[in-house]
Sequence to fold (205 residues):
Amino acid sequence: MLAVIAPSNNPAPHTQWLTAPACGYALVVRPGSRDPFTPARMIEALLAAGVEPSLSLLTGDHATGDALVEAADFSPVFGGDAAARGRAGTATTAGVNLRGPGPLRAAAQRAVTDEVLDVVRDSVGYDGGTRRTDATAVFTDADPRAFAEAVAERLARLTPALPERDEAGPPVLLAEAVAVREHPASRRPSRPAFGDGHLPDGQLY
Fold:
């Protein structure tokens, strides 16, 4: 049995288990809590196409995922450092393949041209910056402040829009963002945590 502990940040990782039934695996997918719909649609499509009914979608908490990993022959597990630490002892004995957010770095060690800045922008912001293959740090031997400002200026050109819009660069969930912004004020109305700009240091309460 193949047990997939799936992520919620992007639909693309679900393509990695798509061929498992054709390889003879019984398949169980535990979806991420924010996106159970992508694997549900994929499994429905496979069953409608005539694939043998040996694949299942099983929602549940982390304990459910742990039980599936223990029972499976092989498990690709998507998650961060906590997932890696929790399964460190089984990573080789139980056929666990950890696929966490990649600490991908970009290095810019030549003249800072428009081409270099565009590559860095794409490395950081591709697909709204939601993929685990997006760059999380950039190293440069140029002036770091000027370099960062030039990349930020390019990232600012991306179009924020609802995820279902074709022109969306960074996906925007406005109602959810407003709720997150207003929650601290509702808890501590006399000490607003947010101003008009970025959250200042020392106000993370």
The first strand starts at residue 2 and ends at 5. Residues 108 and 116 are 7 Å apart (CA to CA). The helical segments are 37-48, 62-71, 81-86, 114-125, 144-155, 174-187.
